[in-house]
Amino acid sequence: MSELENNTSLAEDDEISLIDLFSVLIRHRMMIILGSAAVFVLTVLYLFVYPMLSPKAMPRESTVEYSISVTPVPSIIASELPPKYSSLKTVLNAEFTDNVFLVKELSKNNPFVSGDGKKLTDFEFNQFVQNLQKDKKFSVSQAPVRDEIIVKMKIPEDNLDVATRLIDSMIASVNEAVETPFLTEVSKMKKSKQETYDEIKATFSENSNITDAQILMLTVRQVNEFMDTYKCISERTLEPFVILEPMGRVKKTIIATFAAFFILVFIAFLKNAVENIKNDPEASGKIKTAWDKGKFGRK
Questions:
Q1: What's the 3-state SS for the chain?
Q2: Is-contact 233 175, C-beta < 8 A?
Q3: Which of 93, 108, 76 is nearest to 220 (CA)?
Q4: Which of 151, 55, 147 has the alpha carbon at shortest distance from 105?
Q5: What is the dihedral of CA 219, 224, 228, 232, to 10 degrees?
Q6: Can you tell me the distance from the alpha carbon of 23 to that of 27, in angstroms, rounded to the nearest whole number?
Q7: What is the predicted pLDDT for the residue at 54?
Q8: For helices 249-278 and 29-44, angle between their N-to-C axes, nearest 10 degrees
Q9: Radius of gyration of the chain (CA)
Q10: Which of 24, 92, 182, 245 sits 20 to 30 Å CA-CA off 157?
């Protein structure tokens, strides 16, 4: 045999064959499959069945949904207001998703931590608030048809009262901040339309365009009707819709099962390596030598 052929043969012997690796998995398949299945079953029993038998044994989280009604602004009025106040639903949605506003409100009522939650620094608390929206533990959306916004929160089971206080506080804060400038703009617009109408009326003649005067009068009438029925910018209309479930049970089940699978695969390769070392005197000698050299005090 030539030197080139000999080197090629040695290189091939040193290569890790995918078939050899696969054969290890096949040989230990029952251990891997049964072990992973056992962990899956035990995890399901612990996370899904056990809480049903002993409800207090495992903390649960509530998915809470609040409906907040928003005063609709008639289109004829909204078209004459500054864009910021033309849709109160949009105003409320923007305020509720503002991180600065959330930090301020959550510092007063925080339903996302349990009673023994650790004290966070200002920086940690700011990051915590940002992660609430990023992780979808706090989300705000506008109802597609109704004049409402929907606030959803995932909180520990016992914190429902705190969550309701948070929502009520947020509504009160927005109402207080928005109501005065909003009503001021509505009053200014009404006054302007009324004055323009009075000017047209004072100079009205048979040749005057009556359409402009009718539009102005209609706008003033709409404002009067709106102000007669107006109560507040927004209010919580219904009791929250609540769904209870063990905290993260599906995710925990998946993580536990895959962790067991990969650990068992590692054990299979480890057992195979030990068997190969035992059957190879030269390899056993190398392992023993390495072990002896690695002892404390050896040089």
A1: CCHHHHHHHHHHHHCCCHHHHHHHHHHCHHHHHHHHHHHHHHHHHHHHHHHHHCHHHCCEEEEEEEEEEECCCCHHHHCCCCHHHCCHHHHHHHHHCCHHHHHHHHCCCCCCCCCCCCCCCHHHHHHHHHHHHHCCCEEEEECCCCCEEEEEEEEEHHHHHHHHHHHHHHHHHHHHHHHHHHHHHHHHHHHHHHHHHHHHHHCCCCCCCHHHHHHHHHHHHHHHHHHHHCCCCEEECCCCEEEEEECCHHHHHHHHHHHHHHHHHHHHHHHHHHHHHHCCHHHHHHHHHHHHHCCCCCC
A2: yes
A3: 76
A4: 151
A5: 60
A6: 6
A7: 67
A8: 160
A9: 35
A10: 92
The whole-angstrom separation of Cα 140 and Cα 168 is 15
- Could you tell me if 276 and 283 are in contact, meaning their C-beta atoms sit under 8 angstroms apart? yes
CA separation for the pair 142, 169 (Å, rounded): 19
| pLDDT the model gives residue 245 | 63
Please give the model's pTM, rounded to 2 decimal places: 0.61
d(C-alpha 252, C-alpha 45), whole Å: 12
The predicted pLDDT at position 261 comes to 94
**Sign, CA torsion 193/195/198/204:** negative
Both tokens of 15, joined, read: 């290569």
Lookup: tokens for 260: 């067991």
- Ranges of residues in the chain whose predicted pLDDT is under 70: 1-16, 51-52, 54-59, 115-118, 204-209, 244-248, 283-284, 286-287, 290, 293-299
State the Cα–Cα distance between residues 288 and 299, nearest whole angstrom: 15
Q: 171 is written with which tokens? A: 């509504």
